[in-house]
Amino acid sequence: MTDPAVQGLMAALTRGEISRREFIRRLTALGLSMPVIAALLQACGGDDDDDDGGSSDGGGDDEPTATEAAEATESDGGADEDEAEEDEPTEAAPEEDEGDESDDDGGASAPSGELVVAQGPEITSLDGSMSTGMLTFNVVVHMMEPLLFRGDDMKPYPHLAESMEQVDATTFNFTIREGVTFHNGDPLTVDDVVFTIQRISDPNTESELLRYARTVTSVEALDERTVQIKLSEPDVTFPLRLTLVPIVPKAVVEELGDEGFDANPMGTGPYRFVEWRRGDRVIMEAYEDYWQGPPKIETLVFRGIPEDSTRIAEVQTGGAGLVTNVPTQLVPEIESNPDTQLYQVNSLRTIFCVLNTLKAPFDDVRVRQAANYAVDKDLIVEGILDGYATPTSQPFGPEVFGYNPDLENYYAYDPDRARELLAEAGYDENNRPEVNIFSAVGRILKDEEVVQNIAAQLEEVGFAVNLNFSEYQAYFDTYFGTGEPGMDLDIGFFSNANNTADADYNLSLNVHSGGRGIYWQNAEVDELIDKARQTEDQDERLALYHQLLEIMIPEAPWLFLYTQHDLYGATSKLKGWNARPDEMIYLYPASLED
Fold first, then answer.
1. Domain count for the chain
2. Integer Cα distance of 300 and 285 in angstroms
């Protein structure tokens, strides 16, 4: 049996984290037959110490009793076998390690310990239904949860929604999970779900999540447990985007207002909000009545520490238990220290420079191409990032659906070709194209060093470069957050997390004219993005993305660079956590052990 969901449940049963009855219930919900479940029970080592007992003969037969099977099926609401694959969790969906089994297993240990998580930039928002980005999501996903949860395989699985049914190409029905409460004790209802989707869909609320709901035309409650969402057109990426939409309590948001809720967030997650010291940290504590059982760590603290040296010093001295973006030169220190451990994963994040095609010099495609030929990506990857990145000439790497291996190395390093193109565009030593590079500091691994190297390589082939660095949020708000281009920017060092591992995420957000495609637009590319989103056949979708890339890459609206490898430093006490390619830091299954 290789199914990760089944493997996870078998491991949980063996460790005593779930009872025999719960094991049977979960496997029944996955659509497994009783003979198969019996074989799995036997593989787990026979009877556990479940108070409900096993078979009445007390022998070695682990066949579930009729009572156990009936109770397991009844408690799950009679799962439809046709929905088994849709309801199947993944190994990365720790929510399936449900654990409120104290009556059966002799009592679970109470949450304990404090874990400080240090990301780079400062935390600026706590309302996950109004603000986007992984920096915010990593904090709020512990307090408020989406209908669907993205597993390690980047596919969406039921979470607050017990099931999802696609009625037709533009209609989705979601059955809301019973027994879920907000942190004030109020039950999760269909009204909260309808309110959340309507809130992000309303342009007047100015939610940054509006782009996730751009195709939503209506959302309504069909009954006490069912919500129906209708779309204006087929959208195969819609379930993936729902994994980024936390559900908020309607009554609380209406009582506090947008600003009040942002300052005092509440959800259904494993942790409840305690305090936000702006500019410093967010503190949350374990929610004992969490619907999957309380988490193992009692207190989570999220901090923003942009300086690499300070952030790493925190984990080395015990001031933080988990930090992001370990500078590559410090990797040996983290690995050799018995008190720390290193996590590494190939990230979905692509690093690139946006080129402002609305004015000279980058209104000339030859100058844009020259910039791409001028930069030795291998030099950056090996010389600055110590190999912890992968060069690319595309908007995303091979882990993202839509990637075209035939176009890789399209802009192989060729400084002579760069000089030729600049000459063709009318530039020479006495008439160098002057460009302003803008970048944030502390958001991307060794970003300042990378940008300085890019500037030096551009100057080597004939550009005149001015460097400008600032704090991340100010940089983002000024040049990418207003919907209008910043005309003093010629080159903007930027990145995209490709959260859904699907080309639509990056292209819709950063290329489409309806997104952040504010420095370069192409009507044919817009059309291909829209068409691919509406196409269900995956081979046809892939062909459309390849067609799009064959337009975009020669047009060179970006200086294509590399995909990042994420490096995390952590205390050696941290157990049960793994780095994910989508940069989500999810600590519900984690624990701190001496």
1. 3
2. 6
Residue 411 and residue 355 share a domain: yes
Q: What is the DSSP letter of 119?
A: E
Instruction: Spell out the residues 6+ positions from residue 3 whose beta carbon is closer than 8 angstroms to its own.
Output: 88
**Are both 369 and 505 inside the same structural domain?**
yes
Q: Which residue has the higher pLDDT, 174 or 35?
A: 174
For position 487, which CATH number holds? 3.10.105.10
Predicted confidence (pLDDT) per residue in 59-68, tens digit: 333 434 333 4
How would you label 368-378 residue by residue, b for 16+ Cβ within 10 Å and e otherwise?
Answer: bbbbbbbbbbe
* Contact yes or no for 241/231 (Cβ under 8 A): no
Taking the chain, what is the end-to-end CA distance rounded to the nearest angstrom?
33
Dihedral sign for Cα atoms in the order 317, 320, 583, 412: negative
Residue 216 scores a pLDDT above 50: yes
Residue with tokens 């190939």: 346
Burial class of residue 487 (count of CB atoms within 10 Å of its CB; 0-12, 13-18, 19+): exposed
**332 located within any domain:** no
Rounded CA separation 570/323 (Å) = 6
Whether residues 58 and 188 share a domain: the answer is: no
Q: Which residues pair with 468 in a beta bridge?
A: 438
Per-residue pLDDT band at 29 (split at 50, 70, 90): low
The reply to whether 133 falls in a domain is: no
Supply the range of the domain harboring residue 171.
Answer: 146-263
What is the torsional sign of CA 92, 94, 95, 96?
A: positive
> Which residues neighbour 80 within 8 Å (Cβ) at sequence distance 6 or greater?
none
Beta carbons within 8 Å of 8's beta carbon, 6+ residues apart: 89, 91, 96, 97
Q: What is the pLDDT of residues 337-356, one digit of tens each?
A: 999 999 999 999 999 999 99
Report cis status (omega within 30 of 0) of the bond before 361.
yes
CATH of the domain at 180: 3.90.76.10
CA distance linking residue 54 with residue 48, whole number of Å: 8
> Which residues, including other chains, have CB under 8 Å from residue 197's CB and lie 6 or more apart?
213, 216, 219, 227, 229, 245
> Are both 527 and 404 inside the same structural domain?
yes
Measured CA to CA in angstroms, residue 64 lies from 31, 68, 80 at distances of 15, 6, 20
3-class SS string, 392-429: CCCCCCCCCECCCHHHCCCCCCCHHHHHHHHHHCCCEC
Residue 327: inside a domain, yes or no? Answer: no
Same domain? For 156 and 93 the reply is: no
Orientation angle between helical segments 447-461 and 365-374, nearest 10 degrees:
120
Instruction: Tell me what pLDDT residue 53 has.
Output: 34
In a domain? residue 576: no
Q: What is the three-state SS of 426-486?
A: CCECCECCEEEEEEECCCCCCHHHHHHHHHHHHHHHCCEEEEEEECHHHHHHHHCCCCCCC
Indicate if 428 and 560 belong to the same structural domain.
yes
